[in-house]
Amino acid sequence: MTVQQPFLTLNSGYKIPQVGLGTFMAPPNEVENAVLTAIDTGYRHIDCAYIYGNECEVGNALKKKFDDGTIKRQDVFITSKLWCDAHRLKDVRPACEKSLRMLGLKYLDLYLVHWPVSFHVKEGRKFSRDDPDALEYEEVPLEETWKGMEALVEAGLVRSIGVSNFNKAQIERILAICKIPPAVNQIEVSVNWLNDKMIEYAHSNGIQITAFSPFGSPGLMTCVFILSPLRFPYLAV
């Protein structure tokens, strides 16, 4: 099935469809059907992340559409993201390979550093999306993480690499040392937050913007990752 849609060209030379389906907060028992419907409707860009907890179901949907001939691998653009507990150089490739296994793919079109912050799970605790208190901040230089990202391109596991939720100063740190510049910065661009200064800065450096939450994502208010300020230790009374 050939679908005509607008594309943007990344600084890596690859093209990215301008409209994509996000899978954040999509329950595993619903996201497979959502991806199937999206592909049938004409979507060719699926945005995923390890921390969303649903990459296996996204992979199931992709396999069904590959198997029934609706699309070929080269017809669809798949993004995933490196989570904050895998920023050390030695951890970047295993994290990417885990997402590839869950998605059932040999390569990703785009892999992003999800957030410019790193942490590890506290001793004796187990990581859970429902237990953010199990996490502890860890100092890992962005430059170290980026070298791991570049190695993914060199290994053929990823075609383009980028960042997400980065500000100007953080991007400039990457640009100062990189062999492969970020192709994308994925940020909020919504009716409440146009983010025009970041868009202008990114474009001036050849970086495309992927915009999330165009309508403000009111569902974020119930997300376990958005903590109530009353849970912060320094506000405890």
Folded structure, characterized:
This protein has 6 helices and 11 strands. Helices cover 31% and strands 20% of the residues. Helix 1 runs parallel beside helix 2 (55-67), helix 2 crosses helix 3 (89-103) and helix 3 (89-103) packs across helix 4. The chain has a single domain (7-116, 144-224), classed as TIM Barrel (Alpha-Beta Barrel), CATH 3.20.20.100. The strands form 3 sheets. Strands 3-4-5-6-9-10-11 form a 7-stranded parallel beta sheet. A two-stranded antiparallel ribbon has the order 1-2.
What are the main properties of this structure?
11 strands; Aldo/ket_reductase_CS; two-stranded antiparallel ribbon; TIM Barrel; 237 residues; 7-stranded parallel β-sheet; AKR; alpha/beta
The named CATH superfamily: NADP-dependent oxidoreductase domain
Can you give the helix content as a percent range? 25-40%
How many beta-strand elements?
A: 11
Structural class: alpha/beta
Tell the overall outline.
globular
Terminal-residue CA separation: 60 Å
Q: What is the string of SSEs from the N terminus onward?
A: EEEHEHEHEEEHEHEHE
The share of residues in extended strands comes to: 15-25%
Largest sheet: 7 strands, parallel
Query: Average pLDDT, to the nearest integer?
Result: 91
How is the largest sheet built, in terms of strand order? 3-4-5-6-9-10-11
Helix run count: 6
Please name the CATH architecture: Alpha-Beta Barrel
The low-pLDDT segments are: none
Number of domains: 1
| Alpha carbon gyration radius | 18 Å
* CATH fold label: TIM Barrel
